[in-house]
Amino acid sequence: MDRTFVLIKPDGIQRGLAGEVISRLEAKGLKLVGARFFLATEAQVMEQYREHIGKPFFPHLKRYIMSGPVLAMVWEGKDAVPVVRRLVGATNPAEAAPGTIRGDLALDTGRNVIHASDSPASAAREAAIYFAEADLISYPRIDEPVLYEWVG
Ligand code: IDP
Ligand code: MG
Q: Domains in the chain, start-ordered, CATH in brackets?
């Protein structure tokens, strides 16, 4: 089964959208396997967004992600990485499709509620910034026999 890394950014927490975001991922059938609520450190943000270091928006991005508590999670399911990226929507919420998290819940690229990994390799690297392997819990969800054609 595939895993992806998701982080509800400080604007999502401040706006009380954590429950809405979690509900959407749960309702899709994805399984929560790890969660932590905390203030991200500069080192963590630099590692999470290392491909953006040096870009003009990076200082703003770093300040934004460190501006308040975040909720980091790992979600598991078939094709979890591309499925969650599609649920999240385009980086610029003004262009994100209606029905997506950013398309429905945000307006500004610099305040777009949620991060989700863009590849399985990124997901593994990003999850390891915030979670030890022992923090991620493998367990059956009771709906799996009906959620997947090949189970049961
Ligand atoms: P993604 O979050 O959809 O993967 P990335 O291009 O990886 O988008 O950018 C990471 C994050 O950096 C974005 O989600 C957004 O918060 C911020 N960001 C990206 N481009 C801009 C920009 O042009 N202005 C302000 N913030 C930006
Ligand atoms: Mg990205």
A: 2-139 (3.30.70.141)
